[in-house]
Amino acid sequence: MKIANFDLQTDGVFIIAELSANHGKDLEIAKETIRAAKRAGANAVKLQTYTPDTITIDCHKPDFQIKGTLWDGQTLYELYQEAYLPWEWHAALFETARDEGLICFSSPFDRSAVDFLETFKVPAYKIASFEITDLPLISYVASKHKPVIISTGIATEEDISLAVNACRSQGNNQIILLKTSSQYPADISDANLSMIPDLAERFSVLAGLSDHTKGELVPVIATALGAKVIEKHLILHKNIDSPDAGFSLDEQEFKQMVDAVRKTGKALGSIDYNLSDKARQSRRFARSLYVVKYMPEGTIITGEFVRSIRPGFGLHPKYLKDILGKKVNRDLEKGTRFSFDFIDE
Q: Hey, which of 38, 41, 153, 161 has its CA 20 to 30 A from 278?
């Protein structure tokens, strides 16, 4: 599966810098955050495309009051009014990403957002965790036949299955499920990263992580467990007025995470029993059969005269049982690599 020119099977972990609300209501901050994502080593930057009116309604009834989060005291409408990315900025941000060589796409929150994003020829779509139950939206996104990345933070197994089937019903099997803890910030004890390989196997998809914990540890562990995608919030400066600042990484922190993920990927390597050049060089320190005591011609080979020792230039130790009890056909100095040529047949 490819997202733009990035092959998720061969090009390593696809690292997404999530802009979210970290634009601070300033287009120049949003642009510079995209440039920071490039400097930090991200492969892509992701936007969110909605308005307060496409995601909720302006209502102060208890159902619409936020409780138990960073945003207590606000209504949903007030939060999204503060956080949303103006649609008229999208063209400039897509252009900035293109200039930086970054892949750029977005999370749409209704059909109008999908139609709007299609005008930018986005290479993929992201379904936010709280939209995983919006099957009509997922079906519409999948109908565009581009990779669909779905966060699973609030999802039951049935929710995930229904979302995956909604994609496949449109003939779209380009599906990536992200393990997510939908708390802001999330506690590491809630990461439950063992879900990543299970998501991949259970639903026959690629899997990854959308992370809201602090620091780089959880993305590194996710990479070791086979995550193909890592998404993390990036903020230009922690003092930017953003509802997402508390669980976002600044440029230096994001770069540290990227470096750690890349090193983890290199350490994992691939399943290959062929020896590398370095390993072949090191085989000279392996064990092999050597003459360890002077042997006049005619000496019977015993463990007193021939042993398995380092280095590895002599006969393979597996042949020791085959040569014991036989006579040598020449004088052999201590330290001679043993060979079948030394044996009288």
A: 41
Q: How far apart are CA 280 and CA 167, in angstroms?
A: 48
Please name the residues in contact with 229: beta carbons below 8 A apart, sequence gap of 6 or more. 8, 13, 14, 15, 16, 149, 176, 178, 206, 207, 208, 209
Q: CATH number, domain at 303?
A: 3.90.1210.10
Domain that holds residue 216: 11-268
Rounded to the nearest 5 percent, the helix, strand and coil shares of the chain are: 40, 20, 40
d(CA 160, CA 174): 15
**β-bridge pairing 6-7 and 2-3:** antiparallel
C-beta of residue 235 within 8 angstroms of C-beta of residue 210: no
- Across the chain, which has 345 residues, the per-10-residue mean pLDDT values are 97 97 95 98 98 95 86 87 94 98 98 98 97 98 98 95 98 97 78 96 98 92 97 94 88 97 94 88 94 97 97 96 96 98 87
Sign of CA dihedral 34, 37, 41, 45: negative
Phi, psi of 164 (to 5 degrees): -60, -45
Assigned token pair, 295 = 């042997």
Structure-block tokens of residue 231: 């998404």
**Hey, what are 91's tokens?**
């063209």
Q: Which of 218, 219, 217, 212 is nearest to 234 (CA)?
A: 212
Claim to verify: residue 220 and residue 323 sit in the same structural domain: no
Report how far apart, in Å, the C-alpha atoms of 109 and of each of 52, 89, 112, 128 are: 10, 17, 8, 8
Distance between CA atoms of residues 159 and 307, nearest Å? 65
**3 state SS of 330:** coil
Distances (CA, A) of 230 to 14, 67, 244, 261, 299: 6, 28, 18, 9, 66
Tokens describing residue 27? 């287009």
**pLDDT of amino acid 246:** 83
The answer to the question of residue 223 being in a domain is yes
